[in-house]
């Protein structure tokens, strides 16, 4: 059928409710052009919020600056509120504020705040409504012809509007520190593994399509550049790059996203990087190279070294070169050295390669055409390099450098007038990316054969469906335009800021008090029973953090995900067994990890969840093609399984990170899903079991009222919160209301008919039931916990409460309420939180006691008394010593969510329910 756009369908449709309509180009929610806030009721005001650094230690340096999010209670602050930031001693700190989320009454729900790198950071801060302090020198953004110039007061960056160079130059005062900043990529037409006789290599550079200034000070500026990589007549690998600059900072943060739009059988990416030209001034003995190792280690060398020679130039001279300072005039040296300088080789090329998570090597050579000399090696590099002179240079780095291997930092031409500094997000020294499917289909030519195979490997295979076309990856890079070669300690500070960008956070107590993200509460060990559950939650989380390290769940396409199921016979996760391999967000692992962070405020928890958000929102989701907006079910490859589903692309898994950090890329990902219902026109999710012909009708789509609707609805909720597309809010509210109007609400069965134009389900008159154990474990419970309170409508509240009460209820209770028994349902421990929710809504202590009994019984989860401890396996039984536990990721995620929500909802009934 001819594709009908959402906008065409919506012509003439009424969009109910209040709220401003803004274009998608404004989703950075900028201070200069923020979306209009909804009409607010009178606010009650709010006191100061205390903020501390996530990693606790006061950072020596920031990654250019820092941006963080803070939540506020409903009705507390007017939409036009501004904020002041102060230190403990009352000193004012320059801050830029903007609103990222609103409550339905128009009051502020989430704010974002940016601080520059003043280098004098306090241990703690206080944020309160007030007038923000302006920076001494405000950041400025100017258009000069076709160029955009951002001046932080320390550096000036000139962005191009077309051509191959995203950045024309970076200046510090009158000195050009770097120029000709571009993106580079390499492609081979054959993989390394097939030993082809002839391999063709092509080099691609960036070609700009559009430049947008999304934010322009006074503290923070954001410049977004989109385009593709180009070689000859081919343009591919679309990129979306944001540059972040802060007042008073010499740093430039870069968030780089690209989408694979090639042919996995012929397009093997062999390099992907960001490259600058760095002018080299002065003598070659005054040119310096720096690389960060592990634990603040630094390799410090000069292009032309004057230490270790047969003749000594003098202690003062040697000390200056080691320190990266300008050397004294050669006429003051021992002349036996001065007269022979030209005989000392110049080492113009350096390369630090991290090809695995467990080892890096540094090599250097004098120039192309000559051999590389091995410098040194260690386990994990800090991911930062430097090339420059005592009059200035460029520090360049990649975050998660070893975690995202194979990576590389490279310097070339340092002995010439201009060095080239390259951050390779994928190193050309590694084997090219091989994204082909991992088996030949095994003869699974028909749906019957594919369904039969699903019963042995748990993999839902279908020819041509295991494609990487449309998957993406985001990387974070840092550049500093320095006025001199940094000391080793200063360079180590930069490396730490690059690896772990400092972030301010409010306390779990404050966040919980605001009512954001539904039912959760800070850690409470006040009773023995509570403490026992908290111990289990901590043990589970620590186990997965440890497994990531022990099992080396690292790599360009893998880092951030975890495995699905364990194989106790091999003492190994089932990395090679169909649908038991990578987790791909199955049963809301992402949500469990984020709630763990919210409750604990723990830095390790935040970073672990952050890595998962970066991975699952990019790699496990399609961003181009007919399946754009769909995610892929768990499998051996992240894109292997043929089940392409909304439950994996779920915006609810991204909301936490977006509001806590104001990250624009994640905001884009959530926004891109508001039309994900259109995927039902392109792909039949029931194609393998359908008996009739699939002719999707946009006004009567077969969309489930639980798993499908809940996943799309979380994107609409995020859009409503952010005061975005009004239609998203309309469809969210219409969906909830029309489901609640069905005789059996969220348990209603039959062929439900969903209207893509307005989000309404067709009226149902017959009392039917269709309930599955997966219905609510992909965010529906969390969605409805929030939505019921936001809407505050009796019909919605009552129907959802009934569903929650009945899932673990008796057949008699189910028949009495819905006319049918719901059968023998799985995941009853998981749904104990549904019982807990119903007990609160109905003020029913007996139901609370039932919920705790369901939780302790542990059906399809972990019963009371389950052993969460690990056991060490070593010797010849395993490749290397590992820890294993009786845990599976599905059970862990749902146990975690059930425990967290039960403690918040009915924690007061825990002791009495024993």
UniProtKB/TrEMBL annotation:
Segments forming domain PcRGLX/YetA-like N-terminal RIFT barrel: 49-129
Keywords: Signal
Superkingdom assignment: Bacteria
Residues making up the signal peptide according to the UniProt record: 1-28
One Pfam short name: PcRGLX_3rd
Provenance organism: Zhihengliuella flava
PANTHER family on file: CONCANAVALIN A-LIKE LECTIN/GLUCANASE (PTHR40081), TAT PATHWAY SIGNAL SEQUENCE DOMAIN PROTEIN (PTHR40081:SF1)
Ranges for domain PcRGLX/YetA-like central beta-sandwich: 140-495
PcRGLX/YetA-like C-terminal alpha/alpha toroid domain span: 501-910
Stated name of the protein: Tat pathway signal sequence domain protein
């Amino acid at each position: 059928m001819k594709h009908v756009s959402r906008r065409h369908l919506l012509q003439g449709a009424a969009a109910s409710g209040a709220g401003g309509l803004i274009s998608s180009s404004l989703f950075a929610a900028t201070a200069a052009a923020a979306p209009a806030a909804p009409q607010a009721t009178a606010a009650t005001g709010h006191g100061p919020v205390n903020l501390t650094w996530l990693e606790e230690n006061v950072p020596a340096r920031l990654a250019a600056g820092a941006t963080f999010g803070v939540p506020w209670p409903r009705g507390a602050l007017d939409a036009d509120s501004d904020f002041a930031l102060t230190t403990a001693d009352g000193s004012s700190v320059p801050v830029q504020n903007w609103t990222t989320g609103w409550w339905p009454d128009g009051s502020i729900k989430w704010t974002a705040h940016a601080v520059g790198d003043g280098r004098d950071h306090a241990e703690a801060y206080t944020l309160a409504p007030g007038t923000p302090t302006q920076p001494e020198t405000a950041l400025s953004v100017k258009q000069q012809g076709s160029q955009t110039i951002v001046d932080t007061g320390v550096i000036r960056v000139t962005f191009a509007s077309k051509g191959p160079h995203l950045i024309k130059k970076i200046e510090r005062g009158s000195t050009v520190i770097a120029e000709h900043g571009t993106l580079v990529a390499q492609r081979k037409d054959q993989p390394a593994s097939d030993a082809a006789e002839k391999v063709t290599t092509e080099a691609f550079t960036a070609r700009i399509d559009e430049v947008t200034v999304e934010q322009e000070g006074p503290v923070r500026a954001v410049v977004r550049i989109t385009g593709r990589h180009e070689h000859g007549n081919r343009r591919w690998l679309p990129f979306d790059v944001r540059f972040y600059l802060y007042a008073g900072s010499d740093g430039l943060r870069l968030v780089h996203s690209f989408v694979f739009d090639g042919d996995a059988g012929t397009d093997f990416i062999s390099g992907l990087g960001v490259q600058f030209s760095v002018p080299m001034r002065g003598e070659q003995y005054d040119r310096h190279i720096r690389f960060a190792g592990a634990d603040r280690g630094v390799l410090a060398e000069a292009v032309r070294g004057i230490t270790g020679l047969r003749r000594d130039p003098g202690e003062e001279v040697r000390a200056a070169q080691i320190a990266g300072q300008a050397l004294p005039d050669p006429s003051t040296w021992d002349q036996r050295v001065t007269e022979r300088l030209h005989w000392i080789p110049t080492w113009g090329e350096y390369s630090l390669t991290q090809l695995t998570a467990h080892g890096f090597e540094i090599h250097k050579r004098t120039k192309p055409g000559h051999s590389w000399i091995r410098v040194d090696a260690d386990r994990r590099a800090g991911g930062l390099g430097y090339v420059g002179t005592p009059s200035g240079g460029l520090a360049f780095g990649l975050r998660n450098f070893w975690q995202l291997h194979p990576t590389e930092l490279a310097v070339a031409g340092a002995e010439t007038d201009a060095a080239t500094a390259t951050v390779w997000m994928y190193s050309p020294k590694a084997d090219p990316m091989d994204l082909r499917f991992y088996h030949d289909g095994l003869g699974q030519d028909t749906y019957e054969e594919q369904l039969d195979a699903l019963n042995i490997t748990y993999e839902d295979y279908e020819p041509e469906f295991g494609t990487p076309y449309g998957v993406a990856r985001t990387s974070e890079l840092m550049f500093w335009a320095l006025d001199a070669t940094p000391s080793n300690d200063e360079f180590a500070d930069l490396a730490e800021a690059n690896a772990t960008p400092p972030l301010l956070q409010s306390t779990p107590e404050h966040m919980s008090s605001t009512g954001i993200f539904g039912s959760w509460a800070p850690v409470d060990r006040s009773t023995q029973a509570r403490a026992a559950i908290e111990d289990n939650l901590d043990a589970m989380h620590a186990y997965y953090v440890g497994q990531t390290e022990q099992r080396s769940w690292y790599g360009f396409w893998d880092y951030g995900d975890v495995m699905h199921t364990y194989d106790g016979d091999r003492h190994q996760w089932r990395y090679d067994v169909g649908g038991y391999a990578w987790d791909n967000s199955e049963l809301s692992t992402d949500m469990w990890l984020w709630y763990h962070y919210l409750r604990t405020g723990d830095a390790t928890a935040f970073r672990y969840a952050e890595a998962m958000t970066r991975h699952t929102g990019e790699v496990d989701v399609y961003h181009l093609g007919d399946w754009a907006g769909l995610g892929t079910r768990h499998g051996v490859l992240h894109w292997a399984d043929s089940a392409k589903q909304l439950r994996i692309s779920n915006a609810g898994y991204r909301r936490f990170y977006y509001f806590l950090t104001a990250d624009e890329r994640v905001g884009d990902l959530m926004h891109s899903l508001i039309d994900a219902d259109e995927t039902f026109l392109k792909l039949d999710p029931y194609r393998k079991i359908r008996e009739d012909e699939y002719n999707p009708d946009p006004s009567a789509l077969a969309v489930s009222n639980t798993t499908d609707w809940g996943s799309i609805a979380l994107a609409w909720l995020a859009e409503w919160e952010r005061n975005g597309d009004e239609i998203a809010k309309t469809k969210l509210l219409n969906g909830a209301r029309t489901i609640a109007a069905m005789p059996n609400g969220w348990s209603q069965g039959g062929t439900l008919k969903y209207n893509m134009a307005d989000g309404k389900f067709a009226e149902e008159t017959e009392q039917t039931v269709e309930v599955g154990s997966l219905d609510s474990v992909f965010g529906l419970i969390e969605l409805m916990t929030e939505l019921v309170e936001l809407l505050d409508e009796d019909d919605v509240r009552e129907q959802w409460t009934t569903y929650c009460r009945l899932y673990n209820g008796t057949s008699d209770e189910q028949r009495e309420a819905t006319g049918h028994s719901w059968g023998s349902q799985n995941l009853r421990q998981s749904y104990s939180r549904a019982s807990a929710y119903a007990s609160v809504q109905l003020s029913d202590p007996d139901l609370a006691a039932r919920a705790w009994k369901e939780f302790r019984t542990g059906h399809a989860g972990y019963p009371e008394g389950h052993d969460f401890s690990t056991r060490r396996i070593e010797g010849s039984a395993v490749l290397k010593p590992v820890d294993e536990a009786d845990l599976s990721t599905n059970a862990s995620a749902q146990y975690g969510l059930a425990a967290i929500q039960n403690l918040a909802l009915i924690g007061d009934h825990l002791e009495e329910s024993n």
